[in-house]
Amino acid sequence: MLAVDQREALRAMFAAHQSAPVTDQQLTDFKVAATRTLSPYASAVLVDKQFGWDAVVAAGVTDPGCALIAAADAFTGSATEFVADVAIDPTVDPATVRAQGAKALKLLVLWRPDEAPDGRIALATDFIARCREHGLVSIIEPVSRGPRDGGAYDHEAGIHAAARELGSLGADLYKAEVPTHGKGTEAEILAGCERLTEAITGPWVVLSSGVPADLFGQAVRTACRGGASGFLAGRAVWASVVGSPTLEADLAAVSVDRLRRLADIVDDAVTR
After folding, report:
1. Contact yes or no for 238/34 (Cβ under 8 A)
2. Residue 49 is among the residues annotated as catalytic for this protein
3. Would you list the DSSP string of the chain?
4. Which CATH number describes the domain made up of 2-270?
5. Which residues pair with 2 in a beta bridge?
6. What is the pLDDT of residues 41-89, one digit of tens each?
7. pLDDT tens digits, one per residue of 189-212
8. Phi first, then psi: what are they for 130, rounded to 5°?
9. From 31, 106, 175, 183, active-site residue
10. Strands 137-144 and 102-111, bridge-based pairing
11. I need a surface site. Which of 8, 59, 112, 232 has the fewest CB within 10 A?
């Protein structure tokens, strides 16, 4: 599955390639182009309401064989984080997006070691209930973050703590960070994925944020060996073409190949 729901992080990626301010329209145009070019090779595509959903739906660029996932999270940034707080986006009405073709909703959940679990559990539980009420697949995406005061923390421990805390709340799909961000040995990544499988009730997939693009394919293969069902990722597929003056050509020449290779890895791994 393909993700194009990045927001201020995507703006920062564009900013690295230009001196002028990055406009909202640039982000929207990218999401429309990426969905048009890549959705024929994905089983689903994840799009955010803020910069992409309405334009993607209006343009009708999603391939008929690719399901639409609406990002139901509203982000608040800080001086040090693109996403410092998350809430359920009140502008994403489940009934409306379902009528527009959505099959699922996704919610990011920030796991911090210095915050009590009650708020995270309540947020995820509310989200899952909303999805069930409207016949939509629920996808939660817990990510390990540092404490509010910026102190040191164990990112890897947070990945597993989040899975133990949130992985059995009833979400239809759990979207997890790759253990070690794909930089450990194969044995280390495999062991981490097996721990996630033990903690998560139901299917789970990996995301690509934090994983070098050249390592993500092997990380996906190892994750599937450890119990994952595939991936829901964006940066590993299209990050290298952001800011290109020949975007659509590069999406077709570079990103399609990457997405197809990743899909082949999953197909091979889960059928063994």
Report:
1. yes
2. no
3. -EEE---HHHHHHHHTT-SSPPPHHHHHHHHHHHHHHHGGG-SEEEEETTTTHHHHHHHT-S-TTSEEEEE-EEEE--SS-S-SEEEE-TT--HHHHHHTTEEEEEEEEEE-TTS-HHHHHHHHHHHHHHHHHTT-EEEEEEEE---TT-----HHHHHHHHHHHHTTS--SEEEEPPGGGG-S-HHHHHHHHHHHHHH-SS-EEE--TTS-HHHHHHHHHHHHHTT---B-BSHHHHGGGTT-TTHHHHIIIIIHHHHHHHHHHHHHHHT-
4. 3.20.20.70
5. 45, 233
6. 999 999 999 999 999 999 999 999 999 999 999 999 999 999 999 999 9
7. 999 999 999 999 999 999 999 999
8. -60, -40
9. 175
10. parallel
11. 59
Phi, psi of 163 (to 5 degrees): -65, -40
Specify the pairing of strand 204-206 against strand 137-144.
unpaired
For the range 91-100, what are the long-range contacts, defined as Cβ-Cβ under 8 Å and sequence gap of 24 or more? 91/49, 92/49, 92/53, 94/130, 94/131, 94/133, 94/134, 94/136, 95/134, 97/53, 97/70, 97/136, 98/134, 98/135, 98/136, 100/53, 100/57, 100/68
Cα 102 to Cα 46: distance, rounded to the nearest angstrom: 10
Q: Would you state the structure tokens that stand for residue 196, as one six-digit string?
A: 């996630």
Torsion angles phi and psi, residue 141, rounded to 5: -130, 80
Query: Measuring CA to CA, which residue among 215, 195, 193 is closest to residue 205?
Result: 193
For the chain, the structural domain boundaries read 2-270
Please provide the average confidence, as pLDDT, over all residues in the chain.
97
Whole-model pTM? 0.97
What residues are paired with 76 via a beta bridge? 85
Spatial distance between the Cα atoms of 184 and 47, rounded to a whole number of angstroms? 30
